[in-house]
Structures are given as structure tokens and as C-alpha cells.
Amino acid sequence: MKSVLLILLSVIIFLEVDADVAETEAWRKKFPENKKDLYAIQHRLQELLPKAKKGLVAIEANDGAGSGVIISSQGLILTAAHVIGKTGKKMKVRFANGKRASAISLGGSELSDAGMLKIIDEGPWPFVGMAENQSSQIGDWCFGLGHPGGFDAKRGIVVRIGRIIGKKDETMQTDSRLLGGDSGGPLFDFQGKVIAIHSRISQKPDQNFHVPIESFQANWDFFKNEDLLTFNEIEKGGFLGVACEEEEDGLLVKSIVPNSAAAEAGLQAGDVLLKVDDQRVNNREKLTIIISSKKPNEEVSIEYRRENTTNSIQLKLGIRSN
Amino acid sequence: MNFFPLLLGIFFIFSLNFESVYCKDENYSESLNKEFRLNGTQIQNAFGSSKEKALNTTVRLIRNHKLIALGTMINPEGFLLTKASSCVGAREAVLANGEVFPLKIRKRFEDLDLALYQLISEKNDFEFVRWKDKNQTFEISWVLSAFTKLEEVRVGIASGKQRPIGREGGVMGVLLGREGKNLGGVEISEVIPQAAAYRAGLLALDLIVKVDGRKVYKRDQIIKIVGAKDPGDLINLEIKRGERTKFLKVTLGHKSVTFDLFNRNLQMSGPVSKRKDNFPLILQHDLPLPKEAMGGSLFDLDGNCVGINIARVDRVTTFSLPAKIIKPYIEEWLSHE
């Protein structure tokens, strides 16, 4: 019986693999090989755009303009922290047809540049879906939407295609081109889901920075509850003194700052931080948010794993020195 | 008021200090190999015969050994079109195969900012573009153009509505402040360094009393008079500086050039075309081309010429004149020849 099952299973797996090979879409290939592939990519983009465009808004405040994307029918909007600037700020969002709605800024983080705001007028609002955690990777085709240079009804929304050229921690890098005013606009994958938010440009026009959707997902409640992590808070708040890399269930300590709170408490490179004050930490930004919300000398409890044993310690946070 | 609220956009945070907090630019342990990127060699090669067509029908236009524009070959006798305002003084044209020909100008179409040149040669079998001026559905489709050395192409997507681009008008390069009959004119609150007014000797707090002989009390009056003129035009000002009356002539500047100094977006864009206004119709795309690549043609995936690149606007925007706008001009001119 067992062996029959096994054979069945392997047949199924085999069939699936086979099907995948037969139907590899042009945008899943390592690179488009010919015009047929390019047409397929173009066609896919044309197919996804009408829906993607509906979620895009221009964001207006007295002191500037940016872009954003609506991700719920109640009007929750993802944007960049530098577009909202602070929490509780009254702003206007503008749709492609020129109509405006009132919004108020929620929270975000200057570290990743993730920001949120919410439309306060009655919905429902058109919205787009977000990609699942870790679903995007280097080499994926993507397209950015936004209002480069600000809203322009005669020009309309501008689409730029590109590929993910790097993804690490709180940033994604693509060769999809950006300009001021695009800030906060969405980057979509070829499933039509939001994978990132436009953040910064580099001097080279084909290397631009975006906030990956994972940054939002890891700190969703913090951002939504009108909390904004600022560089000022990071500077003045408590300081632990670890440099980490994200792992599935925690943060792998790569190095310890000498004489820091972490060093004095005996944390070592190779330890995996699991919880801080009973909150799970598997996102670097989340750790920074928790630690920076405390004052120097405040105590925190840390749960960490060292060589398969889980340990708990209490330690007093230090001061960030430059 | 010569002042247009500059795009007070939120500009990307771009300070050294910020970058150094968590410098990422070159720090990726893993990144997509250059050949697979949007403008990498593998993607360019997928365009196949369209790429070849783009390279073989585009020419480099040279003045003093420097590339000043690209050109688009439009017939076998060696006629080519280019961006007129970029191409002043071009002496020779270089083809992708390295052949060099002297040039003579045949005609300028000022309203399109196009110039028609001819290669001086006995040859009558030059490769030229195949226009696509009907059934143009460009929004969201691949486009490509030859890059400056005619060895590579640049690819991207046409998006944004086809639309006319209005005239910008000339500017003095001042910010206007207080106004009114009691004051006896309009006060200059700021003079933009290096702009037209600055070069004419205007200073902050000068009171503009007359413009071209007409008394002015309101900012709007000045804006109207100046805006009706073009860059390069002269205006006569009567001003009061303290108790003294002065007469100054100002040669108006380009709005974009004058105010770009303050525009972060354009600071980050690098050199842009001087004339990027006043076109009857444009289509927009995002090919990363320098301003010296204007005048070259824009192709679709099938290798048809859908337009001529006419202005580098900023780092994400290039305007092209659609083929359907260009063709009637050419046909009319050829019918007279």
C-alpha cells in the first residue's frame, strides 16, 4: 500500500513539474529570448495595468506631493514615510480622473521609509492586492506606477517596466525608473500584486530603491496605529548594539558593538534573537522599533537561541554613540 | 510674477548622511547580473531585427569632433531628420558602419524643431526607416532607439497620453513681491542668480515702473507682457532703485533653464534638452537617452519607426514626435522639390 502511494505521489509531482516546464511564461524565463517573449511580456503588462492603475493615488499636502496605493476598500494607503512626514497630518489624495478625497497620515518608519495613510471620506474605494511575504525575488519583472513630478491630468499615469536587481533587508532595488513625485507609488509584480513602494533614487537612473512589502507586513499594526519611527527616536532611544540578519524564526546576530548593552549582557555573534519583551522579532526593523521606543537605561528581556538551547536574559539598554 | 511655484514635490531623500546610515548602493551581496537587466545585452538582443534596423537607420551628427545629435535616415538618397535646435553647426554624419559623410542642410521645420539634412554622396542606396503612422497604439508597448555610439540600443515602454505640449514663454528670472498704485509699480523680491534679469543688472528691491513703455502696478500685468514673448526676445524696463530711475534691457531666458536651477528633480536628471516645449503632439517614453541622442528615431517591436526623439525632459521622460505628425511635413516638402 505504502509503495503504491509513493508511486502515485511521485507521478503527481512529476506531472506538475512537467506542466511547469511546458508553460513557462516569458516573464518567468531568465531573460526574454526573442520578440515573441517580448510581446508576451508587453501583453501581460497591458492585461494587468487597468486594475493596477485603479489603486494608484497622487498624495497632496501643503508642502509637497507624492504617490500612494490603496490596499483596502476602506481606503488604507501604503506610501513612503517621507511623503507623510508625520502622523495625524491632513492630506488629500487624488485619483486618475482628478477627483480628490481627504486623508490623514497614520504611521511608518524612516528606517525603511514605509508609510501609511487612510482616506477619511466614506468608501468603498478601489484597491489592489499585496503580494505574499517573500514572494518576490531578484530577477523578477516588475512595473512601477506613479506621478513623476506631480499629478498631470493631460499626461496621466506613467508606467515604467523593470526587473528586481537587488533585495536585502529593508530595501529592494530595481532598474524601473523613478523621479520625485513617484515617491510612495507602488511597484507591482507580474501577478498584479504590490511588491514594494517607491522610496529613493540613486545617481544612476537604472538603480532605484523601493520599500519591500515585507517591511509593511512585519510592522503592520505599528504603522496602522499611527506610530512613526524617526531617525531622531533611533538616535535618542535605547541602544542594544547588535547587527543582525533575518532568519525565519528570529534574527541572527552577525556582530556585537563593543561595550554596548548586548556585549555586556554576553550576547555573541551566532546567537539568534527570538523575542524582546515577549514580542517575536524576525524583522530587523521591528527590533529597532521596539528598542528605540525605550529609553537608555530601561530594562528589556531578551529570549535568544544559542546552539539549540533557548535562553532568557534581562539587560539595561545603553546610549547610541556615533 | 515670473515665478512659477516650482514643483514643490517631495523629493527623494538624497543626502550623503542618510546614505551612510545604511549604505546600500554597492552593498548587495547578490544582485542581478547586468546582462539580464532591462537594458542589458540579453534583453537588447531579444529585439533582434528591430535592433539592427534601429542601428542601421540612425546616424551620428558631429560638430568639432563631438556628438551633438543623432539623425534619422528617411530615404535612400541620404536625407535625414534631426532635432533642429540641437544640431546647429553639424558638419558631418557618421553611420553605424563607420562611414563618414559631409552634410548640408536642406530645410528647417521650426514648429516641430526638426531639421532636414542631406548626406553629400553619390550613393543612393542608404538604408532608411519604415514609418508607422497609422493605427498607432503605443500606450504600454515596447519601444527602442539606437544609443549614442550606434553599437547598442536602449529599450523601454511608451506610456502617458499622446498630447500637445504648450509654449513655455520667456522669463526674466525674478520673483515679484509687493505691488500697487501707492507703491508706483511692482517690487522685485528676488533675482535668480545667472538668469536673464541678473545678467541685465536687476537687483532685489528694484521697483519695476514700466515694461515696454507701459506702466505696471500689478504682478499679473508683468507676467502677461513677459509671457507673451519668447526666450531670446528683448524687453525694456523702467525701474526705480531708491530715488534713481534706470532703464534696462533684458534678454529673456528659457523658463525651464532658469528655474531648473531650483528644481531638485532636474538637478538629479542631468542635462536636459533646451527646447522641450511647444510641440503639436508628442508621445512619451522612458528610454535612458542623453540629450545628444535626440533626433534619433523611436522604433516599435517590429522595427517600424513610430517617431523621432525630440526632447529629453527629465530622467524618466523623453518626448518623441509621432510619425503621423512628421510625415505630412516631409511629403509636402518633397512634393515641392
Summary, kept brief:
By secondary structure, chain A is of the alpha+beta class. Chain A is built from eight helices and 21 strands. With 337 residues, chain B is an alpha+beta fold.
Report on the structure:
By secondary structure, chain A is an alpha+beta fold. Chain A has two domains: 205 residues, Thrombin, subunit H (Beta Barrel); 90 residues, Pdz3 Domain (Roll), CATH 2.30.42.10. Chain A contains eight helices and 21 strands. The longest helix of chain A is centred in the first third of the chain and has 21 residues. About 2% of the residues of chain A have low confidence. Chain B has two domains: 189 residues, Thrombin, subunit H; 87 residues, PDZ domain (Pdz3 Domain). Chain B is elongated. The N and C termini of chain B lie far apart (47 Å).
Order of helices and strands of chain B: HHHEEEEEEEEEEEEHEEHEEEHHEEEEH
The total number of structural domains of chain B is 2
Label the structural class of chain B: alpha+beta
* Residue share in β-strands of chain A: 35-45%
Structurally, the number of domains of chain A stands at: 2
Report the CATH architecture of the largest domain in chain B.
Beta Barrel
Would you identify the CATH architecture of the largest domain in chain A? Beta Barrel
- Runs of chain A with pLDDT <50, length 5+? 15-21
Which spans of chain B of ≥5 residues are poorly predicted at pLDDT below 50?
1-28
Describe the largest sheet of chain B.
6 strands, antiparallel, barrel
Strand order of the largest sheet of chain A: 1-2-3-6-5-4
Major sheet strand order of chain B: 1-2-3-6-5-4
Briefly note the CATH topology name of the largest domain in chain A: Thrombin, subunit H
Q: Give the largest interface pair and sizes.
A: A-B, 66 and 52 residues
**What is the CA–CA distance across the termini of chain A?**
67 Å
- In total, the number of strands of chain B is 21
Q: How many distinct beta strands of chain A?
A: 21
What is the average of the pLDDT values of chain B? 85
Q: What is the N-to-C succession of helices and strands of chain A?
A: HHEEEHEEEEEEEEEHHEHEEEHEEHEEE
Largest sheet of chain A: 6 strands, antiparallel, barrel
Distance between the termini of chain B: 47 Å
